[in-house]
Amino acid sequence: MKILSQIAFMLLICLAGQYIASLLPMPFPGSVMSMVILFILFLLNWAKPQKLSEVNDFFLNNMSFFFVPSAVSILTQFELIKNNIVQILIICVVSLIVTFAVTAYTVTLVINLQNKFRKKRQKEETA
């Protein structure tokens, strides 16, 4: 019963996100609006991540199931994309490489900054 109430809470957040997104004068994904609402609820302590742990674990354990409709849609629309498949694959590979490189450089930068601040703090503590 606990997981059902958690799913109902998440569904209400998703519905609220979709509703708010439909009111906006520009196109905006309802799912992103739902994440913003949930984030705000967490910040205000009106919702606690620990109370949603069971439904989160359920969704994470069954994540591959949620990609099935997208894959089926791509397969049913293959006639439309088959003429551009090479360009789509190139875009996917290039975006993968760029994302990987940006992530690697960001992690390296953060590690270097952390080391710099640690050394600075150690010098201050020894002085």
Automatic annotation (TrEMBL):
Domain of life the protein comes from: Bacteria
UniProt keyword annotations, A-Z: Cell membrane, Membrane, Transmembrane, Transmembrane helix
Membrane topology: Multi-pass membrane protein
UniProt xrefs under Pfam families: LrgA
Annotated TM spans: 26-46, 58-76, 88-113
Tagged with keyword DNA-binding: no
Any Gene Ontology CC annotation: plasma membrane
Subcellular location: Cell membrane
Keyword presence, Cytoplasm: no
Record-given protein name: CidA/LrgA family protein
Protein source organism: Candidatus Monoglobus merdigallinarum
